[in-house]
Amino acid sequence: MRWMTIKTLRAALTMWLVVTFVFFVLRLSGDPTDVLLPDDVDQATRNFYRAKWGLDRPIWDQYFSYWTALFQGDFGVSFRNNLDAFDLVWERVPKTLLLTLTATAIAILIGVPMGILAALYRDSWVDRLVMSLAVFGFSMPNFFLGILLILLFSLNLRWLPSSGSETWWHLIMPALTLGTGFAASLARYTRSSMIDVLSKPYMRTARSKGAGPGLRVRAHALPNAAVPVVTILGFRFGDLLGWAVVTETVFAWPGIGRLLTNAVASRDLAVVQCIMIILAFTMVLANMIVDLIYGWLDPRVRVGAGTQSR
Amino acid sequence: MTALIKATDLRRTYTAGRSQWFRRSKNFHAVDGISVTIQRGETLGIVGESGCGKSTLAKLITGLIQANNGSVLFDGTETTNLGDAAWRDLRRRIQMVYQDAAGSLDGRMTVRAQVEEPLHIHGLPLDAAERALEAVGLAGPMAQRYPHEMSGGQLQRIVIARALALEPEVLVLDEPVSALDVSIQAQIVNLLVDLQRDRGLAYVFVSHDLGVVRHIADRIAVMYLGRIVEEAPKDAFYAGPLHPYSKALLAAVPKPDPSLRRTSAPRIGDPPNPVAPPAGCRFHPRCPLATAQCQTEAPALRAFGDRRAACHLIEDVA
Fold it and tell me: What are B29's strand-pairing partners?
C-alpha cells in the first residue's frame, strides 16, 4: 500500500513536470497568431484573437488558469476549429493504440523467439543470422523503412494500400514499420538475458537433477530471462509512441501522432498540450504496469508479500 | 562386492585460449589419467590446490562433462558412453552439491518447490521432499520461503535436501562448505556425517581444506595438476603422509593452538602453469627433495600397503 502511494506520488510529480514544461516551452516558441492568421490581417483582429485565447494575459496567469481548467477536465479548445481539444485527440486514440499494440505484438512474437533461438544456438549460424537481422532492424530509420515498404508493396507489387486506415490491409505496413525496430531490440535483449541465465549455476543444477533440455529451458531459463525483457518492454513502449508520430505521418495513419505533427506546425497549443499529457500519462502508466509484472515475475522485488525476518 | 563407482584412467583436456591465425590453441589436461574407486557408504575426500582438476574430476564422475578417455563404472554399468536419456535415469542415484548454494537455486521458486522438482522430473511421490527437508531441519513454514529470504547455511541445507530427495546412493559434493562461516561449516559437515550414518550414502567430498576433510572422509586422495599423487586411509594420511606434496599441504593447515609457536611451514610457492606442466614429476620444481631422476621421469602411482603414492623417493625418505 505504502509502495502504491509512493509510486502514485512519483507519477503525479512526473505529470506536473510534463505539463509545466510543455506549457512554457510552447508559449516561449512564438505567438500562435502569426501562424494561424493570414499575414495581412489588421492589428485589431489580431488583438481580438489574442484576447479570445487568453494570450494577452501574463504568462503566470495563463498557467494557473490552465491548471484550474485541467482539474475541471477542460483541456481548452483547438485554435483552428474551436472544437474541444480533448475530444479531438480522444477520437484519434483508438487508431494509435491499434497501431502501437499491433507493432508491440509483432515485436514480441518475432523478437522474443528469435532472441531465445540465438541464445540457445549461440555462436552458430542461427545466432549470426538473427543478430545480423537485428542490427539491420534497428539501424533502419522508421521513415526510410516505411518508404521502402511503400515502394515495394504499394508501387511495384500493388498488394497493399500506401495510406489511410480504412481496412485491416492498411494496418500491415505501418505496424511492420513500427514493429521492426522494436522486434530487433527485443531480440537482442532477450538473447543477452537468456545467455546470462543459461550460464547460471542453477541451470547446471537442473541438469544434475536429471531435467531434460526442454524442461530446463521452460522451467528455469525462460522465467528468469523474462525479468529484464519485461522491463525493456515497458520502457520501449514509450519510445514506440514517439516513433509512431513518424510512422503515422509516412502512412497518413489518422492517429494522434499525425495530429501532433499538424498541431505543432500550426501552433495549436491546446491540442499539442493535450496530446503531450496523454502520451506522458501512457508512459507513466506503462512503467507502473511493468513494476507490477516485475514483482509477479521476481519474488525478490515482490512487495507487500510480508517480508519475513531471517 | 562391486565398487559403487570405479573410474579408470580418466582424462579430460581443455583448450586454453582460442586458436588464431598464427597461433595454435594450447590444450591442457585438467584431469590426466585418474583412477579411483568409491565403495558404498564411504567418503572419499579429494583435496588439492585451486586448478588441480578436483572439480573437473567431480563433473566427470557425474557425467556433466564428457571424458576424452577412460571409463566410469557406476555399480558395474559403464556410464561414459551413455546417452542423455539413460543418464537422466542414473541421476536419481548420483546427485551433486555445489559450493555456490545461492546460485544453484532458482530465485523465482520457493525452496519447497525446488526440493520437489527432481521428484516431478523422475515421476516419484512428493512425500520424499518433506522427508528430505526434515532431514536437514528445514521442514514446515521455512520451506515456503524464497532463497533470498534465507541465510547461506540454510541455503546449503536446502541444496543438500534437494539432492537427498531422490534418495541417491552417492552425493558428489564440490566444495560444499568453502563459502560458509566456520561455525556453519561444522553444522553442515555434522549434518552430512549424520545423513551418511542414517542412509548409508557414499560421498565424494571435494575440498581444498584438509581440516574439513579430516572430519568427514574415510580415505583421502591428493591431486596435483590433474593427477593423484597420493591416496590413503584418513588416519594413516593425517598421521604421516608419504608424498612430499601431501606433507607440504598438511604443514600449511593452521593449528588452533596458541601455545604452538608459529613455525614456518615450508614455502613451496605457486603451482606451475597447467598449460605447460613441468617434465618428469610435475611436482619437482616445488619439491624440496627433487633429484635428477625427478626432472626427467614421471613417477607411477605405486601401492604401499593400503596406500598409494606417486614419488620416486618414498623408499629413501620413509
Answer: B13
pLDDT in tens, chain B (318 residues): 688 999 999 999 988 766 666 666 677 888 999 999 999 999 999 999 888 899 999 999 998 888 899 999 999 889 888 888 888 888 999 999 988 888 999 988 899 999 999 999 999 999 999 999 998 988 889 899 999 999 989 999 999 999 999 999 999 999 999 888 888 899 899 999 999 999 999 999 999 899 899 999 999 999 999 999 999 999 999 998 999 999 988 888 877 777 766 555 566 778 788 788 888 899 998 888 888 899 999 999 999 989 999 999 888 755
On whether any CB of chain A is under 8 Å from the CB of B64, the answer is: yes
- B133 CB-contact burial (10 Å; exposed 0-12 / middle 13-18 / buried 19+): buried
Is the ipTM above a cut-off of 0.90?
no
Picking from A202, A297, A307, the nearest residue to B105 by CB comes out as: A202
A306 touches B: beta carbon within 8 Å: no
Cα separation, B302 vs A189, in Å, equals 56
Asked if residue B173 lies in contact with residue B206, where contact means CB atoms within 8 angstroms, the answer is yes
Q: Do B121 and A299 touch (CB under 8 A)?
A: no
Do residues B31 and B65 lie in contact, with contact meaning Cβ atoms separated by under 8 Å? no
Taking the Cβ of residue B107 and every Cβ of chain A, the question of whether any pair is shorter than 8 Å is answered with yes
Query: What's the grid cell of residue B275?
Result: 598449460
Round to whole Å and give the CA distance between B217 and B239.
14
Please name the residues between 194 and 223 in chain A that touch chain B, using a CB distance below 8 Å. 200-202, 204-205, 207-213, 215, 219-220, 223
| Strand locations in chain B (E) | 5-16, 26-38, 43-47, 69-74, 77-78, 94-97, 170-174, 202-207, 219-224, 227-233, 302-304, 307-309
Contacts of B110 (CB under 8 A, 6+ apart): B143, B144, B145, B146
